[in-house]
Amino acid sequence: MIEVEWWEYDSAADMADAVAGDIGFIVESAIDARGEALLALPGGSTPKPVFERLASSSLPWRKVTIIPGDERLVPLSDERSNVRALGQAFLPLGARVIPITGDIDDYKLAGNSADARLKDLKWPPDLVWLGMGEDGHTASIFSGPDLDAALAAPRDRRAIGVMPDPLPAAAPVPRVTLTKSAILSARTLIITISGAAKRALLEQALADGSSSALPIGRVLCDAEQPIDIHWHP
Ligand code: 6PG
After folding, report:
1. How much distance in Å is there from the Cα of 33 to the middle of ligand 1?
2. Model pLDDT for residues 202-215, shown as the tens digit of each residue
3. Quick check: CB of 164 below 6 Å from ligand 1?
4. Which of 73, 215, 203, 47 is nearest to 131 (CA)?
5. Residue 77: what are its φ and ψ, rounded to 5°?
6. Distance between alpha carbon 86 and the CA centroid of its chain, in Å?
7. Which helix (H) or strand (E) is 189 found in, with range?
8. CB distance 85 to 77 below 8 Å
9. Does ligand 1 come within 6 angstroms of the Cβ of 131?
10. How many Cβ atoms sit within 10 Å of the Cβ of residue 24?
11. Which residues of the chain have pLDDT under 70?
């Protein structure tokens, strides 16, 4: 049985305060223990207020390396690029923000390249922070032809290229994502979601576990670390 704790807030602002506080604590603990911190952060809209709060905190950012937990295959200058948002938030603070994609159009090769790049980092991440889409995807582990490869990738495979099917409306492009095994290697795992519909979906996915029809259920079912889920209506 996986261990899950739900944290509920009245508003997005309250949730952002709490999540930023937790991440600050994770960063400080990692630096105390190992002299540095590695964070894998999500894309999408939910993280933005947390990024703003983190940016105004006085953490030792020069000792922090940040990667996107997933990336859309778009140029780094594209609004939809996850690392672009991370760079805007954290480069001015002195953090090391590392893109996981470059100019490779073939999504499978882009996944190989991301995997190689991540193998240069000190693993595991101190934090993998995940969001969830209304279709039950997490990071960029989506339904589609590459779902099983992302779920069943061997322990040392950190990233993989995937073609979501159907393509998500918000960014209808192939992706590169941390694999299930890379996500579950994290020292700490947190999830942020909002709204009653996503809450019901995630509760169902957790209850169904390995037989879940949703990617997030099949990713989380083998978690060995406790998972904090932060939610607001
Ligand atoms: C991505 C994300 C993705 C995201 C969810 C939730 O790049 O698409 O990493 O997994 O976390 O789609 O997005 P929202 O926060 O916008 O609801």
Report:
1. 30
2. 999 999 999 999 99
3. no
4. 47
5. -85, -10
6. 12
7. strand 189-194
8. no
9. yes
10. 15
11. none
